[in-house]
Write a structure and sequence with these properties.
The structure holds 2 protein chains of 2 kinds. By secondary structure, chain A is of the alpha+beta class. Helices cover about 15% and strands about 25% of the residues of chain A. Chain A folds into 2 domains: about 35 residues; about 180 residues, no CATH class. The chains are: A alpha+beta, B alpha+beta.
């Protein structure tokens, strides 16, 4: 009895679950070619988003200064002093690509466009985008791997949370607008979780043993921006046009 | 019925294998003939079937085989994957082989820039200063592009200088007070399996190719369509119609074929699109030999 009944119950439970997931999903992925649609029940992060309160000075989750190692702290103070003396000392003021996670809290809206294999993060700020594969693993970091402004990212779903891991960034970007430094050893984890249909709860974990004494995290919020068209934003240093 | 099915199943692959080998001498299928007729429209010297077959695919067949280790998705409207514009095609030569129908002023300006370049001047344009490339200049740049889909939008994510185009399928025309921009404002719709994109509200700071300029009246209509080459590879064919009465005497059309490049998906980085930091590497604000920065 037991052995027959359990599979039946399980089947009914699965059927109810898929039906409800299917119903909640109805139409959500219709814009995608059939072969590109995510599994039913995949959270829908698609759309236009912005931070209601862009972050300028990155603090830990409990509001403290990140746990900088002594040399990195000295560099942070030097960056802050340079910024006060000349706002152009910010790498972003020279139109360099912003780096991760800083680009996430640039004071511009962004688009998320998902399909089954990747998540595209498209930022208005200087028309920058990240194409994050959900299928390919991160490359192995060694001397042959070029350090990039946005590094190398790979994503996966952890339950209903989109997790993006990023490595291989160059050390020429700052982590925030206040001059928080990092090294090429930086590993960033971003977590995006829907909190209702129109809000994303975000969490960033920074792990950089050359800059910080331990990994630390910080939170952010994204809010849907219906009806907003992404504008063409262009940053070109010393332009001649 | 079963026999018919059987013969279709067996015969079709054979037919394909034969046609791949004898592509240059075989007869066109009715669908191909119809396409050839469309392509021949307006040509003073119509293409022969053989010429038409030869020009279907960028690259030679050995290259095409290595470019497309896995085929693109079957659905005609599914542009997912990597497409790369072949190099050496940054010009406005029409499919008829004729030059663009320049106004006399534009013909003169274009020739001046060609002459300056031939005399050693370094031409500087928007793209070489890291501004967005403009359209259709962007569609001529030999770098890969990925398409992405959102409800009511198609995104084109270009490797070159991280140019980003947003095609609004959910609008019939640009909103009121749309500002001028380098890449303009694009509205689009599907005409069968052809993505039709109409773009306007351009600024006048980009060249159309390397040498020819345009004004703010520029309108560009692009028709994107996935098409199999006779050898079985896939191109994204782009028919680009350019209208600008201040620079051209009539609308005209240039065609580009972007081969499918699944081989590039193995590139490390953003799923086959390599990071391109124009700001770091590719700025070109050099002066011409007479000391002027030449723009456009």
């Amino acid at each position: 009895m037991k052995s027959v009944f359990r599979p039946v119950l399980l089947a009914v439970a699965v059927a109810i679950f898929s039906a409800s997931a299917g119903a909640a999903d109805a139409g959500v992925w219709d814009h995608l070619p059939v072969a590109q649609r995510p599994q039913p029940g995949t959270p829908n992060l698609n759309g236009k988003w912005a931070m209601p309160a862009p972050i300028r000075v990155l603090k830990t989750s409990d509001g403290k200064e990140p746990p900088l190692l002594p040399a990195a702290k000295a560099k942070y103070r030097a960056n802050q002093a340079a910024l006060r003396a000349n706002p152009k000392s910010d790498p972003v003021a020279n139109c360099w690509i912003q780096g991760v996670p800083r680009i996430t809290y640039a004071p511009y809206p962004m688009l998320i466009a998902q399909d089954k294999d990747r998540v595209n993060l498209v930022y208005e700020t200087n028309h920058t985008f990240r194409i994050v594969s959900l299928r390919k693993p991160l490359p192995i970091v060694d001397d042959s791997l070029d350090a990039l402004w946005l590094g190398y990212s790979a994503g996966h779903w952890d339950g209903s949370t989109l997790v993006i891991e990023t490595i291989g960034q160059n050390d020429r970007t700052w982590l925030d607008y206040a001059g928080l430094p990092h090294s090429e050893k930086l590993k960033v984890q971003e977590r995006y979780t829907l909190d209702g249909p129109d809000r994303i709860k975000g969490e960033i974990t920074i792990n950089d043993p050359e800059t910080f004494s331990k990994p630390w995290s910080t939170q952010f919020t994204l809010v849907r921006q219906p009806g907003y068209d992404l504008q063409e934003s262009v940053c070109v240093r010393d332009h001649k046009m | 019925m079963r026999r018919l099915l059987f013969s279709l199943v067996v015969a079709l692959p054979l037919l394909t294998a034969v046609s791949a080998q004898e592509a240059a001498v075989r007869k066109l299928t009715p669908a191909e003939q119809a396409q050839l007729d469309i392509d021949n429209k307006g040509r003073s010297t119509p293409l022969t079937a053989e010429q038409w077959i030869a020009r279907q695919s960028g690259g030679n067949q050995a290259q095409r085989k290595s470019w497309e280790p896995t085929p693109p998705p079957l659905e005609p409207r599914d542009f997912t994957g990597l497409w790369q514009v072949p190099g050496g095609s940054i010009n406005l030569i029409q499919e008829t082989g004729e030059a663009a129908p320049f106004t006399p002023e534009e013909a003169k300006r274009t020739q001046q820039l060609i002459d300056a370049e031939n005399n050693g001047a370094v031409l500087t344009d928007a793209a070489s200063q890291c501004f967005p490339h403009g359209v259709p200049r962007l569609s001529f740049a030999p770098y890969p592009v990925r398409f992405a889909y959102l409800p009511g939008k198609v995104l084109m994510l270009h490797e070159v200088a991280h140019n980003l185009r947003i095609i609004h399928l959910d609008r019939k025309e640009p909103p009121k007070d749309t500002p001028q921009s380098f890449l303009g404002y694009s509205v689009g719709h599907w005409d069968g399996n052809v993505l039709v994109v109409e773009t306007s509200h351009f600024n006048d700071k980009t060249p159309l190719d390397f040498h020819s300029s345009h004004g703010t009246k520029l309108k560009v209509t692009e028709r994107f369509e996935k098409r199999k080459t006779p050898q079985g590879y896939t191109d994204l064919v782009v028919r680009i119609t350019i209208e600008d009465p201040d620079h051209f005497t009539r609308p005209f059309t240039v065609i580009r074929r972007w081969p499918f490049r699944s081989d590039m998906a193995a590139t490390q980085g953003a799923d086959g699109i390599t990071e391109y930091s124009c700001e770091e590497n590719n700025r070109n604000v050099e002066m011409s030999s007479d000391g002027k920065v030449i723009i456009k």
